[in-house]
Design a protein that fits this description.
This protein has a two-stranded antiparallel ribbon. The model is unreliable at about 5-20 (pLDDT under 50). Helix 1 packs antiparallel against helix 2 (about 90-120) and helix 1 (about 50-85) packs parallel to helix 3 (about 125-140). The termini are far apart. The protein has helices spanning about 50-85, 90-120, 125-140; strands at about 35, 45. The chain has about 160 residues and is mostly helical. Strand 1 (about 35) and strand 2 (about 45) form a beta hairpin. It is built from 3 helices and 2 strands. It comes from Epichloe bromicola. This is Copper transport protein. It is found in: Membrane. Belongs to the copper transporter (Ctr) (TC 1.A.56) family. SLC31A subfamily.
């Protein structure tokens, strides 16, 4: 292929030098935050304030997961209490409706957990710390009635 007349820097296919604003994807642990993208190309961190805001957002996202888990537990406890006082013939329909809502909450929790796993898998130490800090703070705030052992291993 004839590359005459093309700028060599623009044709750098090695991923270095030519396009400094592209997302970097490391498959090895790193502390480097240059051109860090978190899950989406649009979540591209270019500045130190952007990094700090992104890390704060990751902490809040991880806390949100623990809040969702607490909400799911509260819903399940509430539905179980209501079912225990219902007449038998009404209990079956209410149980089916409750199970559908629990299934939706379960699916959302799994999606959320896998998204947090993908965030963690940026292999960036700062992002990993932010996910872990968010899990800690979320458990501290929302995990009063939860065992410290986990059923779901992806987060």
């Amino acid at each position: 292929m004839n590359h005459a007349g093309h700028d060599d820097a623009a044709m750098d296919h090695g991923g270095r030098g030519a396009m400094p604003d592209m997302c970097s994807m490391s498959m090895l642990f790193t502390w480097d935050t240059r051109n860090l993208c978190i899950v989406f190309r649009q979540w591209h961190i270019r500045t130190t304030p952007g990094l700090i805001l992104s890390l704060a957002a990751v902490v809040l996202l991880a806390m949100g997961y623990e809040a969702l888990r607490a909400l799911s537990r509260a819903y399940e406890d509430g539905i179980n209490q209501r079912l225990s006082v219902m007449p038998r013939r009404n209990r079956e329909n209410a149980s089916k409706r409750g199970h559908v809502v629990k299934a939706v909450l379960y699916g959302v929790q799994n999606f959320y957990a896998f998204m947090l796993m993908l965030i963690f898998m940026t292999y960036n130490g700062w992002v990993m710390i932010a996910v872990s800090l968010g899990a800690f703070l979320g458990y501290l705030v929302f995990g009063h009635s939860t065992s410290a052992t986990k059923d779901n291993a992806c987060h």
